């Protein structure tokens, strides 16, 4: 990251400059902002302002991502406040348009880990130009542009003459929502995607199912939500819902990574998939309770093969999050058939080996669909053999400093994703945003190569105490 | 009479010893769990979804149906309130809506039900000659009621309309829907009355302005939880949103913006809306501290602070040494006394910072003249004393924060002292009541202090009378308040942050002392919270789970 220092210093300087002018509220702070202090500014009339494609742009009208973004940002501008009566004064200079120029002609795809989000934005009375490599960068630039517009006390909109060069520090900037502990209506998810775009997040990590409920409506196994959702009609995500979320996210340059966590956190799967979960024993008889997914049955892997085949198709992102956290071994231990299996396999009493056995086979299934995977840190901690391109998600706050885990993960050559310091569901009194803000993700002992392996982080809003009533004010 | 008093004093001491040995409990440990918090078992409470739990309750297994097209809320025979009682008329309409209004029942229930299985009416009978229909509720309002649900009519009896309002809420909570959408109620007998007379919610509209709509929504939620006092902490350091007719400059210059004010019409609307729900509105105009925003619209009201010889440009508490201060306060409180009908005004008096007074040579001189030495608490008391006289002469009673008592200001014997300082509040309750003053407890119920997990249990487990003192002292605790201070609260998060956490306080203040079973409370509160959602209150979840009808329109 040494190449960053120059830009960083300039950004710091720019920050100082921005502090002096009314437009200094761009969030997150762009890498480089140069703003003319000499009163270089133009007036802007939301009604007459338009967004358009520059002649040099490789994408033009018909590019849904940008066409819709133009409309969105125009509306944001228009709704920024009550409109002043039509002002016919010959007030100059007047900014009338922002032209967008995108270098690569791709418009219909999905954003991915390698999407280029950099952009350059230059505003002035003659010409405001936003240029980017990809449409995703253009989206980020439009957001920045919308934050540059300001109003004076008379309600007049202004745009200062400004030059911005911007690119993200980390490629993976995610937000986790948990729709199992409480169901979140689709509109709450869509609204969150809007706010994510306002904050330049680019990954929606959809922790869609878990122990308490299974709201994902599967075409291959409809019983899962019929029996596992809180309500099989009102508390489910239909295929259309999921498609809507994915498309809504795509139009905002946001990837959707689904998480179907196994073998633990699967109690809600049980009612709709008989035989899937391990029957727990009390002494020599089944207790009636169930534990994690049963890893010793072929039917388990047939089921997973079918289910993940569907999931791999429904969710276009290259990555699936496979969970793998917090597997409780007590039920496996109680089950005589599992004990026998352990013996046959030569696992001894090491149930982490059984977990690895399961995860290993699951990873093979996912690989066979040409997908990559993200897993919670336990999978790495327990020594499961994972493919070199696996992403390890570091979340544990209370298992020693998370910095050490990041160091271990990257030392082993894996890419790491940081969430441990950003469990936003854990509320406390006061301005706790500052604690989250002061985290430096690369502050761990490791080589420059290791630091390169930290691809980003995720803010997590687990759902124990969160539903649509408090999601938005708790998250933002 | 002297011997009797001595005897009583002796009783007090022994009761105190017994109390201390019975009630001392170690502080509860904070939950330290992450994703793996133990799930409370959700089950059925024998008391259904009633919240707060009535004093005496008998629910029979026999079910009656209510047909929305036929069921009526009516004035019963012999009631001293009739259709001319607008308060009840409004309440009937409101509760009809709460009972039936949320599902599409229009094409159901037209057929006759088998005889003996239908509840046709709720008859509301006010017994007292004066129903108090057109009054404002006050500290002595009678909120008791009796509810008897039997085929074919249910009867709700109360002496006053205030009890009828509480009973209507209870009745509405008894009605439930079966899987086929039929409305059912079990035959029941309920006798109910509140344990404490003062059951309040404090909202702070100075640190953040709360739009009128938020306040009204909150009044609805208060009625659903049988709260009866809105303590309106209307102004403070940060802003002065109250639009005074006498001193329009106060909000003109002291509010956040022109848009962030409560006009006289707004205030009247809040008071009326509250009255219709049996809720008193007690305004707080806190002085002499917490008054920075007053200074903008009232020159010379605040004490100029000094930096050595010179004025520093900043200001401290209200200037207690000027006659103009008291002239101003006389006029202001005269207005306030007229605008707010309640017999009480909250005068604040908390957290007075002496440094500015100390820096000011005129104040120092005044201290010398008055013989206060360097005891600035005496100056504070001097000020408070004069304010209390002003308010008394306006025929109002007053509530003050505990510091006023702590610092020994001479206060009238009917002053209500609000105990708010978090640690050792039980000792403070002992002191306040031993001195013979009436007390309100807020200290354990600062709901703005959020933490991770089910902190409602902490609020629920508070026993307000768990302090050392005799029976007479305990009687002086007239209730409590859940406070939602506004540092981190505005319209975006007010409702989910306050509800259902305040519901825990609601039950503590209404129900019997022995209603302390957390599991039973959880089972009822989960349902009560879902019911609040259905009535348009965006109450947040207690824990993992769902409601049949999730929040809408957020």
Automatic annotation (TrEMBL), chain A:
Domain Glycoside hydrolase family 20 catalytic: from-to ranges: 170-476
This protein's UniProt keywords: Disulfide bond, Glycoprotein, Glycosidase, Hydrolase, Lipid metabolism, Lysosome, Signal, Zymogen
Gene3D superfamilies given in the database record: Chitobiase/beta-hexosaminidase domain 2-like, Glycosidases
SUPFAM superfamilies: (Trans)glycosidases (SSF51445), beta-N-acetylhexosaminidase-like domain (SSF55545)
Sequence ranges assigned to domain Beta-hexosaminidase eukaryotic type N-terminal in this UniProt record: 26-148
CDD domains noted in UniProt: GH20_HexA_HexB-like
Gene Ontology MF term list: beta-N-acetylhexosaminidase activity
Location, primary (coarse class): other
Descriptive protein name: Beta-hexosaminidase subunit alpha
Annotated organism of origin: Chelydra serpentina
Gene name as annotated: HEXA
Automatic annotation (TrEMBL), chain B:
Signal peptide coordinates: 1-18
Active-site residues (renumbered): 351
Family annotation (InterPro entries): Beta_hexosaminidase_sua/sub, GH, Glyco_hydro_20_cat, Hex-like_dom2, HEX_eukaryotic_N
Database matches in Pfam families: Glyco_hydro_20, Glycohydro_20b2
GO molecular function: beta-N-acetylhexosaminidase activity
Domain Glycoside hydrolase family 20 catalytic residue range list: 196-512
Statement: the UniProt record of this protein carries the keyword Disulfide bond: yes
Intrachain disulfide bonds: 85-133, 305-356, 530-547
GO biological process, one term: glycosaminoglycan metabolic process
Keyword ATP-binding set for record: no
Entry similarity comment: Belongs to the glycosyl hydrolase 20 family.
Function: Hydrolyzes the non-reducing end N-acetyl-D-hexosamine and/or sulfated N-acetyl-D-hexosamine of glycoconjugates, such as the oligosaccharide moieties from proteins and neutral glycolipids, or from certain mucopolysaccharides. The isozyme B does not hydrolyze each of these substrates, however hydrolyzes efficiently neutral oligosaccharide. Only the isozyme A is responsible for the degradation of GM2 gangliosides in the presence of GM2A. During fertilization is responsible, at least in part, for the zona block to polyspermy.
Assembly and binders: There are 3 forms of beta-hexosaminidase: hexosaminidase A is a heterodimer composed of one subunit alpha and one subunit beta (chain A and B); hexosaminidase B is a homodimer of two beta subunits (two chains A and B); hexosaminidase S is a homodimer of two alpha subunits. The composition of the dimer (isozyme A versus isozyme S) has a significant effect on the substrate specificity of the alpha subunit active site.
Protein name: Beta-hexosaminidase
Gene that produces this protein: HEXB
């Amino acid at each position: 990251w040494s190449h960053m220092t120059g830009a960083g210093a300039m950004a710091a300087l720019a920050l100082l400059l921005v502090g002096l002018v009314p437009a200094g509220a761009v969030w997150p702070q762009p890498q480089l902002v140069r703003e003319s202090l000499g009163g270089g500014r133009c007036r802007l009339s939301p009604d007459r302002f338009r967004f358009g494609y520059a002649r040099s742009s490789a994408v033009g009208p018909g590019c849904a991502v940008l066409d819709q973004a133009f409309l969105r940002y125009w509306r944001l501008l228009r709704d920024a406040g009550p409109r002043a009566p039509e002002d016919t004064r010959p007030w100059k200079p007047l900014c009338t348009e922002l032209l967008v120029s995108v270098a690569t002609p791709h418009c219909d795809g999905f954003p991915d880990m390698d999407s280029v989000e950099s952009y350059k934005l230059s505003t002035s009375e003659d010409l405001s130009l936003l240029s980017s490599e990809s449409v995703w960068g253009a989206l980020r630039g439009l957001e920045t542009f919308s934050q540059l517009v300001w109003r004076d006390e008379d309600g007049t909109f202004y745009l200062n003459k400004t030059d911005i060069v911007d690119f993200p520090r980390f490629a993976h900037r995610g937000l986790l929502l948990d729709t199992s502990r409480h169901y979140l209506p689709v509109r709450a998810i869509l609204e969150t995607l809007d706010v994510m775009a306002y904050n330049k997040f680019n990954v929606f990590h959809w922790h869609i199912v878990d122990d308490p409920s299974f709201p994902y409506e599967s075409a291959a196994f409809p019983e899962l939500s019929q029996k596992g959702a809180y309500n099989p009609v009102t508390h489910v995500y239909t295929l259309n819902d999921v498609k809507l979320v994915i498309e809504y996210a795509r139009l905002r340059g946001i990837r959707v990574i689904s998480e179907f966590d196994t073998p633990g956190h699967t109690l809600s799967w049980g009612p709709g998939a008989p035989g899937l979960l391990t029957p727990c024993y009390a002494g020599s008889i089944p207790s009636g309770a169930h534990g994690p997914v049963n890893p010793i049955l072929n039917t388990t892997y047939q089921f997973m093969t079918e289910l993940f085949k569907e999931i791999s198709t429904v969710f276009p992102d290259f990555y699936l999050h496979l969970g793998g956290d917090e597997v409780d071994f007590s039920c496996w231990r109680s089950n005589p058939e599992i004990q026998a299996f352990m013996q046959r396999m030569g696992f001894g009493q090491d149930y982490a080996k059984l977990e690895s056995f399961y995860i290993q086979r699951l990873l093979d299934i996912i690989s066979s669909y040409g997908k990559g995977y993200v897993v919670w840190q336990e999978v790495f901690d327990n020594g499961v053999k994972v493919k070199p391109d696996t992403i390890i998600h570091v979340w544990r706050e209370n298992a020693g400093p998370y910095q050490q885990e990041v160091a271990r993960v990257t030392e082993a050559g894996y890419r790491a994703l940081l969430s441990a310091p950003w469990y936003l569901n854990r509320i406390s009194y006061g301005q706790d945003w500052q604690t989250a803000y002061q985290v430096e993700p690369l502050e761990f002992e490791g080589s420059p190569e290791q630091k390169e392996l930290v691809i980003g982080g995720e803010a997590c809003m687990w759902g124990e105490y969160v539903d649509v009533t408090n999601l938005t004010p708790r998250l933002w | 009479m002297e011997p009797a008093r001595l005897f009583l004093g002796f009783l007090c001491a022994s009761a105190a010893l017994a109390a201390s040995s019975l009630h001392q409990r170690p502080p509860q440990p904070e939950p330290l769990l992450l994703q793996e918090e133990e799930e409370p078992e959700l089950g059925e409470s024998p008391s259904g979804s009633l919240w707060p739990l009535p004093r005496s309750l008998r629910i029979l297994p026999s079910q009656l149906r209510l047909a929305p097209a036929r069921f009526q809320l009516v004035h019963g025979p012999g009631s001293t309130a009739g259709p001319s009682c607008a308060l009840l008329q409004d309440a009937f309409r409101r509760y009809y809506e709460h009972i039936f209004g949320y599902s599409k029942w229009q094409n159901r229930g037209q057929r006759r039900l088998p005889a003996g299985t239908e509840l046709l009416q709720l008859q509301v009978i006010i017994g007292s000659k004066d129903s108090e229909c057109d009054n404002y509720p006050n500290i002595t309002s009678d909120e008791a009621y009796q509810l008897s649900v039997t085929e074919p009519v249910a009867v709700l009896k109360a002496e006053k309309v205030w009890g009828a309002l509480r009973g209507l809420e209870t009745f509405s909570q008894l009605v439930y829907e079966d899987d086929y959408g039929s409305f059912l109620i079990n035959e029941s007998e309920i006798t109910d009355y509140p344990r404490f007379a003062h059951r309040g919610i404090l909202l702070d509209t100075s640190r953040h302005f709360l739009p009128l709509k938020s306040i009204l929504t909150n009044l609805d939620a208060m009625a659903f939880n049988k709260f009866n006092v809105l303590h309106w902490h209307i102004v403070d350091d940060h802003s002065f949103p109250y639009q005074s007719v006498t001193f329009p400059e106060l909000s003109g210059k002291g509010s956040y913006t022109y848009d962030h004010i409560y006009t006289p019409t707004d205030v009247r609307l809040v008071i009326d809306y509250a009255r219709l729900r049996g809720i008193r509105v007690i305004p707080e105009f806190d002085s002499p501290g917490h008054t920075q925003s007053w200074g903008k619209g009232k020159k010379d009201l605040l004490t100029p602070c000094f930096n050595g010889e010179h004025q520093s440009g900043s200001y401290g508490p209200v200037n207690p040494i000027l006659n103009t201060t008291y002239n101003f306060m006389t006029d202001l409180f005269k207005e306030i006394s007229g605008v707010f009908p309640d017999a009480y005004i909250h005068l604040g008096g908390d957290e007075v910072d002496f440094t500015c007074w100390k820096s000011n040579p005129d104040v120092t001189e005044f201290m010398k003249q008055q013989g206060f030495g360097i005891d600035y608490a005496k100056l504070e008391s001097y000020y408070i004393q004069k304010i209390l006289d002003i308010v008394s002469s306006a025929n109002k009673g007053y509530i003050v924060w505990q510091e006023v008592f702590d610092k020994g200001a001479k206060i009238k014997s009917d002053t209500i002292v609000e105990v708010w300082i978090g640690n050792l509040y039980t000792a403070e309750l002992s002191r306040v009541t031993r001195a013979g003053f009436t007390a309100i407890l807020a200290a354990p119920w600062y709901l703005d202090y959020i933490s991770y997990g089910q902190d409602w249990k902490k609020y629920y487990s508070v026993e307000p009378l768990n302090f050392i003192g005799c029976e007479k002292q305990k009687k002086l605790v007239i209730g409590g308040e859940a406070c939602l201070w506004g540092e981190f609260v505005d319209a975006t998060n007010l409702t989910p942050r306050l509800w259902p956490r305040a519901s825990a306080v609601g039950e503590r203040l209404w129900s019997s002392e022995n209603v302390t079973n957390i599991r039973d409370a959880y089972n009822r509160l989960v349902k009560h919270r879902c019911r609040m959602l259905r009535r348009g209150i965006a109450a947040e979840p207690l824990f993992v789970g769902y409601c049949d009808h999730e929040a809408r329109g957020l």
